[in-house]
Amino acid sequence: MVFSSNIFLLYFLPAFLVLYFVTPNRFRNYxxxxxxxxxxxxxxxDFIIQLTASTILNFFLVKFMCKAEKQSIRxxxxxxxxxxxxxxxxxxKYGNFTMENINAxxxxxxxxxxxxxxxxxxxxxxxxxxxxxxxTIDTYRGVNEPMRKLSDYIVYxxxxxxxxxxxxxxxxxxxxxxxxxxxxxxxxxxxxYRFVIGLSKKILVADVLGRWVDVQLGGDIAxxxxxxxxxxxxxxxxxxxxxxxxxxxxxxxxGRIMGFSFPENFDNPYNSASISEFWRRWHITxxxxxxxxxxxxxxxxxxxxxxxxFNLWVVFLLSGLWHGASWNFVxxxxxxxxxxxxxxxxxxxxxKRIGKVPSVIITFILVMxxxxxxxxxxxxxxxxxxxxxxxxxxxxxxxxxxxxxVATLVVALVFSFVALFGxxxxxxxxxxxxxxxxxxxxxxxxxxxxxxxxxxxxxNVSSFSPFIYFRF
Amino acid sequence: MEKWVTxxxxxxxxxxxxxxxxxxxxxxxHIRQLGGVVEEVVYPKFTMQSYADRSxxxxxxxxxxxxxxxxxxxxxxxxxxxWDFYGMTSALDVSVGRDGWLYESWFVEDYYxxxxxxxxxxxxxxxxKLRTEAxxxxxxxxxxxxxxxxxxxxxxxxxDRVFPExxxxxxWGDEPEGVRAADxxxxxxxxxxxxxxxxxxxxxxxxxxxxxxxxPQTGTHWSNIASLYAADSLFKYMEQIGNKxxxxxxxxxxxxxxxxxxxxxxxxxxxxxxxxxxxPNMYADVSVVEDTSAVKPKLITIGDSFFWNIANxxxxxxxxxxxQYWYYNSTVxxxxxYSSTSEIDLLAELLSADYVMLxxxxxxxxxxxxxxxxxxxxxxxxxxxxxxxxxxGIMASMxxxxxxMASLYEKADAKGVGIEDVMREDAEYLIFTDPENYxxxxxxxxxxxxRNKDMCIKRIKEQIYSYPVWLDEVKRKAEEWNxxxxxxxxxxxxxxxxxxxxxx
Lengths: 472, 504
What we know:
The structure holds two protein chains of two kinds. By secondary structure, chain A is mostly helical. Chain A has 19 helices and no strands. By secondary structure, chain B is α/β, with parallel strands linked by helices. Chain B has helices at residues 2-26, 48-52, 55-67, 71-86, 105-112, 123-146, 159-162, 181-192, 199-206, 224-242, 265-270, 307-313, 346-351, 372-381, 384-399, 402-415, 419-433, 453-466, 468-481, 485-500; strands spanning 94-96, 102-104, 150-156, 196-198, 249-251, 255-257, 281-283, 286-288, 298-303, 322-327, 331-333, 355-361. A six-stranded mixed beta sheet of chain B has the order 4-3-12-9-10-11, with helices on both faces. Chain B has a two-stranded antiparallel sheet with strand order 1-2. In chain B, strands 5-8 form a two-stranded antiparallel ribbon. Chains A and B meet through helix 1, helix 9, helix 17 and helix 19 of A and helix 1, helix 3, helix 4 and helix 11 of B.
C-alpha cells in the first residue's frame, strides 16, 4: 500500500486513526502493530511472512547477544544478526544483478548463461534492513537496552509510516518513544499538516513533473536539444526531491500524529554550497547511517588522507548501490564520491573563494548531472543525454506549452531555493516548527484541507478518462 | 482557546473522511453525474489467488477511484482548475485548439501527420493495404448485388478538414506526412466502382455557404443540424443507387438555440463545473414526408459514432422497415435479438437487407468495416463445412509447431480458457484477416465465382416458395414421395443447385 492511493487515504488511514485513538494508551502499540502488518501484507503478500519471521529471529538473536557474558559470544550473535539482515538484502535486492553480471561474464567467455528465476524485490527491504542493523549495533555497543517485548520490536521495525521509504530511524533515536510517548490534539493536527504538505509535494508537484519527464525521456534522447535537456534534468531534480521529501514529510507527519518524533530527512538540499554539504542535507538519515555504521568503523577521518579518501569512496559506492541494483547507481555513487574527494583536495577552497551563490549554483549543476546518471539506467543512453546537456545545440528548442508543467516547475524551484533568503527561512520555521496559536491553527487547517482535497482530486483525475461512446 | 480549537479541527478532519465514506455508501447528496462513458469496475471478489497476485488490491483501488464519495465534485473542480489556469483538459482524447475549439486527438493526428503510421511507415505498403481492403469490399458489393442488396460507403467529414483554422499546433514538427485513408479511398472507390457518397468533400465545399456551423465548437461529430442535411442527401443517394423510392425528410427552418447534446460531446467529457463560452448554434426540426408510394427498405449500417446523430434525430422507423447499427462491427443496436455481431447469422441478415452502408469518418476509415469485409466475403463464398475444413487445417498446423503451441498454451492460461478455444480463435483470426491466404478462389482478380452452397440453396427455396407454378410442381412431388412440403422444396433446391452450380 502506498500513501498516495485511495485505499490508504480514504479508508486505511481514517480507520486506523479512529482505532488507534479509541484504544487505551497502553495497548496502542498493538493497534499500531496490527495496522502495520495489514499495511505491509496488503501491498506485499509474498513477503510478509519472511519479513515478520526475520524480524522475530533478529529480536531473539539480539536478546541472546545481550544475555551472553562472553564478548566472543556477543560478537558472534551480533555477526549472525547482521549477516541475516544483510543476507536478506543481498538476496532480494542484488540477486538478479549478481546473476546478470555473472552471465554477462560467462557470455564473454562463450559459456552458456546460468538459468535462474527472477527474484521479486520486497518493498521497503532497504529501510527495514538498515533499521534492523541499527538495533543490533546500538544494542551491541550498549547505547540502548534491548526491547523487552517482541511486539514493541516489531513496531519499531515495521511501523507503517516509515517502513516503505524511511526516514531510517535509528534505534537509539526512538527507543524511548516506543514504550512511552504522549499524544495531544495539537500534535495530531501538526502531524496532519505535515502529512498533507508531503502528500501535496508528491501529487501536486512531483507527479506533474514526473509525467512530463517520462514523456521526454521516453523518446529519442539523442534528438533532445540542449535547452530541453536542461529543463528535463531540472524537472527530474525537482521531481525526485519533492517525491522523496514528500514521502518523508508524510511519514514524519503520521509519526507525529501517533506521538513519535521521527528525524528530519531533508534540509533544503539544493541550497548546498558543496557536495559534502548536499549529503548533510539530502536523505539525512541515510547519511547518518552510513557515517555511523560504515564510515567510522572503516576508520573515518582518523587515518591517513589516502585511506580517508578511500573510505569516502567506498561509502559512496555502497550508498549508490543501496539506491538500486544496477551499474548506473554504482557510477552515481562513485560520481559523488569523486567530488567529495575533490572538495577535500582543493574544490572546497575554490568554493570558499567564489562565495555562497556561485558555489550553490555549481553544486546544483553537479547534482543535476548526477541525477541524470541516477535516472537513466542504460549507460549508453545516459552518456548521450549528458552529451546533449553540454552540446550547446539549441536549434531544435521548442518553447514549453504545457502551462501546468511550467507553473509547477517554477513553484518547485521557488520552494527549493526560498530558504536561501532570510524570509524563506522564517517561513519554513513557521510552517514546520511553530506551535500554532488557536487562530493560526484555523488558518493553517483551512489551507491544509484545501491541499488535501486538491491532492485527492489530482490523484483521481488521471484515472478517469471517459469515451464519448463505448467503442465496443 | 487553543485546546478547543485543536479538538474541533481534529474532529472536523475526521468528519471529512466520514462524510466521504457515507457519500460513497449512501449517496446522501445528489450530485450531477460525470459526462462520458467509462468501463465500470466491479467490486473485486477476495480470493487467496487474487490477493497473492495483487489483482484484488489493484481492482479495489480502481473500484475506489470510480466510486469514492463526492468523486464528481473532486474531478470537476480539478478539471476546472486545469481549464481556467492552463487551458488544459485531463480528458485523454480531447485536444484543445484555438479560441476554445475542441477536437478529438485522432483528427488532429490525421490532419498533421496521418494515422497511417499506426500501421506502417511505408506509404506504398499502406496504399497496398488500402487497395486490398477496397478490392474485398468491391467483391462483397458485387456478390450482394446478385442478391438484390446494395452496398455503399458513406465517407463522413472530419472536423479537422472543415475547421483547420482552430486546430492546436502540430506536435509532429518536420516529420513527413503519410497517406491519409480518407484521401486515398475515394480514388480507389472511383477506380474500382464502389458506391460511395463523400460528405468529407461536400462539407469542405459547403463551409461558409451555410448559416449554421457544420461542426460544433465543443463537439467532435457533425453538428446536429448538419447531420440532418447530410441525412437528406444520403436518402436521396440511396434512392438513386438502389433504384427505390424511399420516404423523404423535411427539415424545418433553422433557429438559434443553446447547445444541445451531442453538439458538446467533447466538452461533456471534460467534466467542467462551468460551460465553455461559445456562440449558439442553429437547430431545426425534422419530420418524414408521407409518401404512400415509398417502400420501406431494410438498412444495415456498419460504422463509427457519426451515425448516432442520424439515428437519434431522425425517425428512421418511418423510413425503413428495419434498421440495424453494427457499431464498429461489434455491438449491435436496434436489433432486439442480438447485442453483438458475433451472435448474428451474418448471411441471413445481409441477404434480407436492401442496403448495407459502411459509414466511416475521415479518421476512422483506416479500419473500414472493422473486419466486416473479410467476414462477409468468406461467408458469401463458402459454407460452414468448407470454412471449418480450413480452420481444421490451420489447427493441425498449430499442433505440429511446438513454439506456436507453447504460445497458445500461454494465451489459454492467461485467458483462463481451454487450448482448443484459443486455437480456434487464432485460426479464425488468421483466415478472417487474410482470407486470400487460405481460400484460393478469393485470390482471383475479378469477382469470385464460388458461392456459399447453403446461401444458394436457401435462396432457391425462397424462389420456389415465391413462384406458384414451381411450388405446385413441388407440392405434387411431395405427395408422390410422401414427404413434407418443406422437405420436398429442400430436395428440389439442392437438385436445382447441383444442376446449375457451374453457372453460379
